[in-house]
Amino acid sequence: MKRISASILAFLLAILGVFKVHAQSPETIWLTGGVTTFKTGETVLVTLNASSSTLIQGFTFQIRYDPACLRPVNASSPVPGMNGLPLPQLTGLVDGSYASITPQTVNGVLAEVRFTTLKGCQTSLTLESAALAIRNAEGFAAPLPGVFIGERNIALNIDSEVGVSDSTQQGSGSILPLDPPAAERGFSGWIIGMLIILLFGGVGFGAYKVFRIGG
């Protein structure tokens, strides 16, 4: 009986030890923000954080924002050796990517992302996706499996009153520009209509002159 009790106790301790290891070292990414109330023209700073027991050699993230309320400025990573990889940006979606040639330990801030407030509104930032990258056995970059994404959303309240702009504020480490694409400037419908009318008018006037001279 004592042997059976001892075996059961050892089994339970082994299970608890496994659970404890998994609880202490999950691979997690989450988004945080300090101040959530701003004035127009001020800088919004949000932080991408991660905790990983595995050495990584890069990370990626996508943050959804309202282009009518916010304009992305740049991102910076304090992780040593991480270099920003500029990617084409889409309106309303920040797309950031960093890579390192040597494995790095991460347990805290991965990147700081900055936005400029454009007008008074109530909006939010959403961590659309995020991943940690490692080098696989073949030597290629691959996403680290089993990464849990924690807090995704940050609510912001922006006042229409103009605040003090701090355009010189920069982060530490590799700076990654996040300029959104330039707005496309197309012709409006009435301008196209006027051009068509002028075109046909010019053709008609030219034909009239030709036939009149010929007559």
Describe the 3D structure:
Helix content is 23%, strand content 44%. It starts with a helix and ends with a helix. It is an alpha+beta fold and 215 residues long. The strands form 2 sheets. Strands 2, 4, 6, 7, 9, 10 and 12 form a 7-stranded mixed β-sheet that branches. The chain has a 6-stranded mixed β-sheet with strand order 11-1-3-8-5-13, with no helix packed on it. It has helices at residues 2-24, 189-214, and strands spanning 28-33, 37-40, 43-51, 56-64, 70-77, 83-84, 93-104, 107-117, 121-135, 141-143, 148-149, 153-162, 174-177. The longest helix is centred in the last third of the chain and has 26 residues, at 189-214. It is built from 2 helices and 13 strands; from the N terminus they run αβββββββββββββα. It is elongated. It has a single domain (25-189), classed as Immunoglobulin-like. A hairpin with a 5-residue loop joins strand 9 (121-135) and strand 10 (141-143).
- The total of helices stands at 2
- Please give the CATH class: Mainly Beta
Number of strands: 13
Principal-axes shape call: elongated
Question: Secondary-structure blueprint of this entry?
Answer:
Blueprint: H1 2-24, E1 28-33, E2 37-40, E3 43-51, E4 56-64, E5 70-77, E6 83-84, E7 93-104, E8 107-117, E9 121-135, E10 141-143, E11 148-149, E12 153-162, E13 174-177, H2 189-214
Parallel strand pairs: 1-11, 2-12
Antiparallel strand pairs: 1-3, 3-8, 4-7, 4-9, 5-8, 5-13, 6-7, 9-10, 9-12
Comma- or semicolon-separated keywords:
Immunoglobulin-like, 2 helices, 215 residues, elongated, alpha+beta, 13 strands, six-stranded mixed sheet
